[in-house]
């Protein structure tokens, strides 16, 4: 039995990958980026026999955290993440929710996260990396024993996060990928905020934005 299991549940009209992850020893788990479709998320946790102990956020965009406060209040659990610079986005969740048709509630995180900190889920321990660029307070979670990272909208299969939003920074995004994600190892698989999973090694070999050959020419 692996120490961790994860289920990817696309939510909201933007098909954002909410991840239900749990510690197989304790059956305690967390939702990562519960942007919406909360009844579906709760049914998934119940189906897997998982007791949710917290909500974890990569960043403050509506499709990733619109439902976080609503779900946290329903379950009586804390919210951890993102990094505090994403207060800008969290403050406008309700306005963005109306624009996208996603029920949303602004909130104060129970724990803003910083580079080098760790987040626990059951007996699992995730390392936190601050990876700004898509948003200023974006964080990534890495579980070394499972060789798995949850990268939000920093990196995708064949692409990278958008940097045409307010407070985005394209150069910072590229730097975060090259200096914080690639050192985690080619064999590390990752769950992105949208679309299919991939691995850092595959993206280094093929990604047209941050592949090794592309960065070497930069």
Can you describe what's shown?
The protein is an alpha+beta fold and 218 residues long. Helices cover 28% and strands 28% of the residues. It is built from eight helices and 13 strands. It has a six-stranded mixed β-sheet. Strand 7 (124-130) and strand 8 form a beta hairpin. The longest helix has 12 residues, at 170-181. The model has no long low-confidence stretch (mean pLDDT 98).
The pLDDT mean sits at 98
Contiguous helical run count: 8
H/E element order:
EEEHEHHEHHEEEEEEHEEHH
> Beta-strand percentage?
25-35%
The helical percent reads 25-40%
Can you list the strand order of the major beta sheet? 6-7-8-9-12-13
Task: Note the gap between the termini.
Answer: 43 Å
Could you list the spans in which at least 5 consecutive residues all have pLDDT below 50? none
The largest sheet is:
6 strands, mixed
Q: Which structural class fits the helix and strand makeup?
A: alpha+beta
Number of strands: 13
Radius of gyration: 16 Å
Shape: globular
């Amino acid at each position: 039995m692996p120490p961790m299991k994860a289920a990817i549940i696309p939510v909201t009209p933007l098909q954002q990958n909410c991840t239900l992850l749990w510690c197989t020893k304790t059956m305690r788990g967390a939702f990562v980026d519960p942007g919406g479709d909360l009844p579906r998320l709760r049914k998934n946790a119940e189906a897997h026999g998982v007791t949710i102990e917290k909500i974890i956020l990569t960043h403050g965009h509506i499709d990733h955290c619109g439902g976080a406060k609503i779900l946290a209040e329903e379950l009586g659990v804390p919210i951890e993440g993102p990094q505090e610079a994403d207060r800008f986005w969290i403050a406008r969740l309700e306005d963005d929710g109306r624009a996208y048709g996603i029920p949303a509630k602004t909130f104060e995180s129970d724990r803003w996260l910083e580079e080098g900190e760790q987040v626990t889920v059951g007996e699992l321990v995730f390392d936190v990396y601050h990876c700004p660029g898509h948003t200023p307070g974006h964080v990534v979670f890495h579980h070394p024993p499972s060789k798995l990272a949850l990268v939000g909208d920093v990196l995708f299969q064949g692409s990278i996060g958008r940097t045409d939003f307010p407070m985005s920074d394209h150069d910072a995004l590229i730097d975060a990928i090259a200096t914080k994600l690639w050192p985690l190892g080619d064999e590390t698989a990752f769950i992105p905020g949208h679309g299919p999973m991939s691995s850092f090694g595959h993206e280094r070999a093929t990604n047209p934005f941050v592949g090794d050959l592309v960065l070497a020419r930069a």
